[in-house]
User: Which sequence fits this backbone?
DNA sequence: CACTCGTGGGG
DNA sequence: TCCCCAAGAGT
């Protein structure tokens, strides 16, 4: 089993920048970026990150806003916050050396069982198993698993553990992920060129398209949001920094909130800015309307120009509030949906 | 342990 | 247009 896969990997495996190094720091960064994120998306972020933060010391010493700015657009921002925290732990508790004991690695924020296995096998060739989305699919098909992988995690972990070869774990784990990413794909798996076609139970029973089984999810709720681009007399705009925990934690945004049933957008904006920032505004023209989908809900951002009438902005439901010039907006990390607002503001500003 | 947490791409 | 999914972890 191993040798078949390893032989395939040596010929067909992907060449990826984090496979050119054995620096556990660089491999760690790649593993975190690759959580729930495709290789193509990660590549430019990975290169820029290592330019900005070449070592764990650079990362530990950076301020969080710089870290979040480097992560801007990648999503799941807790990954960046945890990466930053973990770097500080490695400097303070491990003398700047990435730990090599599994228990020490999984103890770092943002690193679970799969990521720990990925790092330790890739960086140190330790025979530890992994179980990411690719491996779940490959192994589920290998044994023709008749239930969703989430219901059989123990069994899949045992199988992954049993398969890792003692002396070639690095290549084997990478090969397993490549197989899932390029051959044993969700749609149109290329079974005819698969090195594991012969032992694959799903292929032999011709059920590879039905495995892994998926559980259905409820339809996403849709929220209407009122958003304010508040201008003051100096042609500055008001932005606020979201709390550390929760959605988009630590990122900046344009203030606003959920429109209550039957409420007009203008009323929502005036109410939210009073509740969250204790300021009075006059709501003007609509700037832009943005539809955006998050993992668990959809939003429509109804963005309106506003004029600041009175009250010094207070950080009541956020961590910080600032007035900033249009030209300075790009220095702050914003969520993707807010990026469209910034573009719209710039178009107004030049005209 | 079910839920939360982004974004881009494919069918 | 809409659903599903992609190198998961934290709570």
Assistant:
């Amino acid at each position: 089993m191993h040798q078949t896969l390893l032989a395939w990997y040596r010929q067909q495996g992907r060449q990826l920048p984090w496979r050119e190094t054995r620096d556990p720091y660089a491999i760690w960064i790649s593993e975190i970026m690759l959580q729930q994120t495709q290789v193509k998306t990660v590549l430019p972020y990975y290169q820029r990150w290592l330019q900005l933060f070449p070592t764990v010391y650079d990362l530990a010493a950076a301020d969080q806003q710089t870290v979040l700015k480097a992560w801007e657009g990648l999503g799941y921002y807790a990954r960046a916050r945890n990466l930053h925290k973990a770097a500080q732990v490695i400097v303070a508790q491990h003398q700047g050396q990435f730990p090599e004991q599994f228990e020490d690695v999984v103890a770092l924020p943002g690193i679970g069982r799969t990521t720990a296995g990925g790092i330790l096998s890739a960086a140190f060739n330790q025979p530890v198993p992994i179980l990411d989305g690719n491996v779940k699919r490959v192994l589920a098909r290998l044994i023709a698993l008749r239930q969703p992988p989430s219901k059989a995690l123990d069994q899949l972990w045992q199988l992954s553990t049993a398969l890792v070869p003692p002396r070639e774990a690095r290549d084997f784990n990478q090969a397993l992920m490549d197989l899932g990413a390029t051959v044993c794909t969700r749609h149109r798996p290329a079974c005819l060129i698969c090195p594991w076609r012969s032992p694959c139970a799903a292929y032999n029973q011709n059920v590879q398209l039905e495995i892994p089984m998926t559980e259905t999810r409820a339809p996403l709720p849709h929220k209407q949001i009122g958003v304010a681009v508040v201008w003051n007399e100096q042609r500055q705009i008001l932005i606020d920094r979201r709390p550390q925990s929760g959605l988009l934690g630590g990122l900046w945004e344009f203030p606003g909130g959920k429109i209550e049933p039957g409420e007009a957008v203008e009323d929502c904006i005036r109410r939210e800015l009073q509740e969250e920032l204790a300021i009075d505004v006059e709501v003007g023209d609509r700037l832009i309307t943005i539809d955006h989908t998050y993992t668990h809900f959809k939003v429509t951002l109804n963005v309106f120009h506003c004029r600041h009438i009175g009250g010094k902005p207070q950080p009541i439901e956020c961590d910080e509030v600032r007035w900033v010039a249009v030209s300075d907006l790009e220095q702050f990390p914003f969520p993707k949906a807010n990026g469209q607002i910034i573009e719209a503001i710039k178009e107004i500003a030049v005209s």
Q: What stands out?
A: Chain A has 14 helices and seven strands. Chain A has two domains: 2-210, 222-350. Residues 18 and 27 of chain A are 6 Å apart (CA to CA). The mean pLDDT of chain A is 96.
